[in-house]
Amino acid sequence: MAHIRKGCYTIEALNPEAPYGPRGCIFFPKSLELRLYKFRRADFENLKNVAVVTRQTRAVFKGVREEIERNWGWCYVGKPLFYYREDGTKVREGKNMVYTVYVNPRLEIYECGWEPSDPEDAFCPEDFHNRYGSRIWHWRQAPK
Amino acid sequence: MVQHFPSKKLKGESSFKKVPLYNEFGDCIDYRTSGETAYRDRLNSLITLYRSMKDDRVIGFQIKGVTALLRRLGCNVLKIVTAGTKADNSIPLIAVLFCAIQESKEKAPLKKLQELAPLAHKIPLNQKIPYKSAA
After folding, report:
1. Residue-range definition of the domain harbouring residue B89
2. Is residue B11 part of a domain?
3. A100-130 residues labelled b (16+ CB within 10 A) or e (exposed)
4. N vs C: which end of chain B shows fewer Cβ within 10 Å?
């Protein structure tokens, strides 16, 4: 996996193409970061949680747009302790949510955000059985 | 390997804008009526609601697969443009939203549609998605 991509931050993460193998990289476009900073400041502040998700990934799903295109993209899931307000204030997350990081087939992060967790598995997004193509990694099944 | 992400060096004004923002990396549109922290609540396979983290009210939505939806509406789309790029055509956001509700094979829960309706009702017709037409 190439570690540098022009115009992007390189973020170390589970390799979605081989999640049980060596770690790889995903990328965050700097133009997207700037757009969030300018117009979606709360979303920008919550990008601090991307590192929590990539360092302590709880699950990875493949196929995040099954109705549009099968096996398109991935979703990394984590459970940060805090969310951030638009002024940067840190608040303890208390609604039993997960933070999801969506990645396109070019390994570029295009969306990050909070979502309710599933009643069956607090480390997965709500209704994960029906929404995604397949779960390709779960922290409880990771080799120690 | 993370290089100071997100950056602490970004400068300039941050001001929330109540306009549709097209994300070319995910072919999706984000529309919000408030800049507060939100969480995502799926409506169907093509639309996600944004709810306020503070009080759970609907404050926006995201539409996915926008290029295909525009073509479904008869737009001869080459590329949806982002800020700073010249467009030669556009379509009202509300038309794209209705198309996404209709086109998804997954039925949207009525209660959530009812929560989206007051917000959708207030979207002005001049909130448009600009695009470049194919030759």
Report:
1. 21-133
2. no
3. bbbbbeebbbbbbbbbbbbeebebbbbebee
4. C
Which of A68, A91, A95 is facing B65, going by the closest CB pair? Answer: A68
- Summarize pLDDT for B32-51 with one digit per residue, the tens: 999 999 999 999 999 999 99
End-to-end CA distance of chain B: 43
DSSP class per residue in B47-76: EEEEEETTT--EEEEEEE-HHHHHHHTT--
- Asked whether B45 and B80 are in contact (CB, 8 A), the reply is no
Is the overall model pTM greater than 0.90, yes or no? Answer: yes
Q: What angle do CA A121, A98, A80 make, to 5 degrees?
A: 120
Provide ipTM, 2 decimals.
0.92
Dump pLDDT digits (tens) for A61-100: 999 988 778 899 999 999 999 999 999 999 999 889 999 9
Tokens 């589970």 correspond to A14
Residue B37 falls inside a structural domain: yes
Binding-site residues on chain B for chain A (CB distance < 8 A): 1-3, 5-7, 10, 12-17, 19, 21, 23, 25-26, 28, 30, 32, 35-42, 45-46, 53, 62, 64-65, 68, 82-83, 104-106
Min Cα–Cα distance to chain A from B82, Å: 10
Q: Is residue B10 part of a domain?
A: no
